[in-house]
Amino acid sequence: MLIKRHRGWELPENHATPEAVFLNRRQIVAGLGAAGLVAAGIRPARAQASGIAAELYPAKRNPAYTLDRELTEEKVATSYNNFYEFGTSKNIVRPAQALTIKPWQVKIDGMVEKEITIDAEDLIRKMPIDERLYRHRCVEAWSMAVPWTGFPLKALVDFAKPLSGAKYLRMETFKRPEEASGQKQFWYPWPYVEGLSIAEARNDLAYIATGVYGKPIPKQMGAPLRLAVPWKYGFKSVKSITRFSFTDQKPKSFWEGMAADEYGFWANVNPAVAHPRWSQATEEVIGTGKRVPTLIYNGYGEQVAELYKDMAGQKLFM
Ligand code: MTE
Fold first, then answer.
1. CA distance 266 to 314
2. Are the C-beta atoms of 219 and 50 separated by less than 8 Å?
3. Tally of CB atoms within 10 A around 203
4. Residue to mutate (ligand 1; options 11, 170, 235; most atoms within 8 A of CB)
5. Which residue puts its alpha carbon closest to atom 24 of ligand 1?
6. Ligand 1 centroid vs 233 CA: distance in angstroms?
7. What is the pTM of this model?
8. How many angstroms separate the alpha carbon of residue 246 from the centre of ligand 1?
9. Cα 83 to ligand 1 centroid, rounded to whole Å
10. Pocket of ligand 1, candidates 73, 75, 82: which has the most ligand atoms within 8 Å of its Cβ, to mutate?
11. Helices (H) and strands (E) in the chain, counts
12. Sequence ranges of the domains in the chain
């Protein structure tokens, strides 16, 4: 790792690396394949399924969500992760196994008819489960294509019965520094928080992934519940959610708390709007060694552009 210290006023690994160096390093890693990764000291790890509601997998694939590209190989997608609670490298499989996910209490609160706390397993079993193939585009200019299993977020919104004044859904990850050593790094604004507008949360594409590759989702990918909003940069897709709060206040997200001039609330993918320090025009498809053009809304404009039609003047793409 190039970064030894990581403070609020410093930058995450890729951000602190000149873009060309950073992209080149990723290309090298992607081109190495599993054996090369080990030789390079980067250990690809096996998916460690959470085992939660295991009888639901594999689920029936929903034909409405297919892809224009090959799926990322399972061993690549499950061993190249961002999960800062367990460290700032991409190789956090091993430390992430320390996370206790059974039991997993999920709180639904704020502007709802009735606040509840429910175990993740009970919640998942109440939801309409399917499998969907989604693109996944990180703000760091890499991408994957992943077969998630899970349920539409709008099913959870309906289950929660928000009050009419609720405008946003705030989602929060656990805070357990004893299990997640990254959370001992006090300069980060833990817990990880993300948010969507209620209209976004009710969009058909907004999804809670509980599984991947036909199995319960492994810890490093956000067991037992993580968001998947494929038209937005990956940092919006908060992992290991413990709390869904309905509110009339726009939530302040983890990355906004770190660098508001670089990471905003909407964070919709747009190749024409560069990150302040690198281009978003193309992306490296992890595991293939190829770069491809990035698409507006990550290719999901037909499903989501409508959500933003009256928001001219807002920073929709950062
Ligand atoms: N959620 C939590 N709780 N902590 C994180 O560090 N990283 C985000 C997002 N969700 C993150 C998180 C980022 S930057 C990305 S790109 C995706 O998770 C990565 O998801 P993946 O590891 O499943 O590919």
1. 9
2. yes
3. 21
4. 235
5. 81
6. 10
7. 0.87
8. 22
9. 5
10. 82
11. 9, 12
12. 13-307
Q: Spell out a b/e string for 59-71, using b for 16 or more CB atoms within 10 Å of the CB, else e.
A: beeeeebeeeeee
Q: How many residues does the chain have?
A: 318
Residue-wise pLDDT for 126-185, tens only, equals 999 999 999 999 999 999 999 999 999 999 999 999 999 999 999 999 999 999 999 999
Q: What is the mean pLDDT of residues 276-289?
A: 97
What does the block give as tokens for 258?
């770190």
Distance 226 CA to ligand 1 centre (A): 9
CA distance 212 to 199: 26
CA 111 to chain centre: 25
- Tokens (6 digits) for 132: 């969907």
Q: What is the CATH number of domain 13-307?
A: 3.90.420.10
Give just the sign of the alpha carbon dihedral 247, 253, 257, 261. negative
Rama region for 287: left / alpha / beta (φ>0; ψ in -120 to 50; rest): left
Whose C-alpha lies nearest to ligand 1, atom 12? 238
Interval 259-266 mean pLDDT? 96
- pLDDT tens per residue across span 85-94: 999 999 999 9
Q: Write out residues with Cβ below 6 Å of ligand 1.
A: 81-85, 136, 138, 173, 192, 221, 234-235, 237-240
Pull the structure tokens for residue 210. Answer: 């509980």
pLDDT, tens digit, 9 for 90 and up, residues 2-15: 223 333 333 344 44
